[in-house]
Amino acid sequence: MARLILFISLQLLFVPLVYSFGAPHVCRSYCGNITIDYPFALQPGCGHSGFRDLLFCINDVLMFHISSGSYRVLNIDYAYRSITLHDPHLSTCDSIVLGGRGNGFVVEHWRAPYLNPSADNVFMLLGCSTQSPLFQGFPAGNHVPCRNVSGMGCEEYYGCQGWMDLGLARMGLAYGTGPPICCALPFDSIKSVNLSKLECQGYSSAYTLAPLRVSGPAEWTYGIRVKYNVEASNDSFCKACEATGGSCGHDVGRFGQLCMCGTWNSTSNCDTIMKLSVGGATLAMDHLPGSLIATIAFWLMSFRM
Ligand SMILES: *[C@@H]1O[C@H](CO)[C@@H](O)[C@H](O)[C@H]1NC(C)=O
Ligand SMILES: *[C@@H]1O[C@H](CO)[C@@H](O)[C@H](O)[C@H]1NC(C)=O
Ligand SMILES: *[C@@H]1O[C@H](CO)[C@@H](O)[C@H](O)[C@H]1NC(C)=O
Ligand SMILES: *[C@@H]1O[C@H](CO)[C@@H](O)[C@H](O)[C@H]1NC(C)=O
Ligand SMILES: *[C@@H]1O[C@H](CO)[C@@H](O)[C@H](O)[C@H]1NC(C)=O
C-alpha cells in the first residue's frame, strides 16, 4: 500500500517536473519546409533581438522584411550562417527587369551589424544614370567601382538571353559612350543597394556556391545571399540556455537576452541550482515551487531505490 501511494505521488510529481524544467523548442517553428531557429524566430520575444520583426510566414511562404522591401526566403543555411532571398523584380539571365521596380538591398541602421550580403555575392546595377553616385567618385576616390566578384561580372552577363530580348546588341552594351549599362560590385563597396539613390533602373544579384565553379551567367544562381552574424558572446549565451533546456529569446521592451525556461525567464540559463545561488531573492522566489517539487521528487526517487 505504501509503495502504491508512493508510486502515485511520483506520477503526480513528474507532471509539474517536466513542465517546470525548460522549454527547449518553444521558439522553433516552421514555415512551409523551412525551419526557423535561433537567431531567427517568428514569435515576438523569441530569437535574437537583431533579427526581430524580420521574418513573417504568410500562407507557408517565408518573407524577409527590411527597409528596402520584402523578399521571399528560399533557404536558411544554419551551418554557413546564410539566408537566400528572392525579389521578383530581380533581373536574371532570362529576364532583365528595368523600370526601377526592384527592391535592391537596404537594411535598417540598427540591423546592419547582423545582416550582410556575402562577399561572393555580386550585385549588378543596371541602367544607372550618368549622374549616378556610382560614376561620381562614389564611394571614394575617382575610379568607377565596377568590378568582377567571384568571377562574375557584367562582361559575361551581357551574353544573357535577357539582353537579346531587350533588343540590345552585346557590343553596344559594353562599349557605348557614357557609363556602362551594367556595373557589377560587391555589397561591401557600397554598403547599401538603394536603386533610387543610385539612380539605377534595375539590378541583378547572383552568387556561386563554392567550391563549384560554374561556366557562364546562365548557370549562376540568381538571388541575394546574405550572411547573418550573432556576436560570439550572444551565441554562447544561447548555447548555455539551450544546454539547460531553455529557448533563446529577448526582452521585447529592452531587447536584452532572455533564456525562456517554460514557466519563467532567466537572464542566464535554466539551471535552477545556479539560479538559486546567484540570482536575486525575487527571482529565486519566482521559481521556488518548481525547484521544491524537483528536490522532493529526487529525494523520493533515491528513497525508493
Ligand atoms: C522546399 O520546397 C521547395 C518546393 O516547394 C523545394 O524547391 C525546396 O528544395 C525545398 N527545400 C528544402 C530545404 O527541402
Ligand atoms: C518571458 O519572455 C518572453 C519574451 O519576452 C515573454 O513573451 C514571456 O511572457 C515571458 N514569460 C514570463 C513567464 O515572464
Ligand atoms: C533610398 O534613397 C532615397 C533617396 O535618397 C531615400 O529617399 C529612401 O528613403 C532610400 N530608401 C531606403 C530604403 O533607405
Ligand atoms: C571580368 O572578367 C572578364 C573575363 O571573365 C574580363 O574580360 C573583364 O575584363 C573583367 N572585368 C573587370 C571589370 O575586371
Ligand atoms: C550581446 O553581447 C554583448 C556583450 O555581452 C552585449 O553587450 C549585447 O547587449 C548583447 N546583445 C544583445 C542583443 O543582447
From TrEMBL:
One of its GO terms (molecular function) is polysaccharide binding. This is Wall-associated receptor kinase galacturonan-binding domain-containing protein. The lineage of its organism: Eukaryota, Viridiplantae, Streptophyta, Embryophyta, Tracheophyta. Residues 1-20 form the signal peptide. It is found in: Membrane. Residues 27-87 form the Wall-associated receptor kinase galacturonan-binding domain. It comes from Ambrosia artemisiifolia. Keywords: Signal. GO terms for cellular component: membrane. It comes from the Eukaryota. It is a single-pass membrane protein. InterPro entries: WAK_GUB.
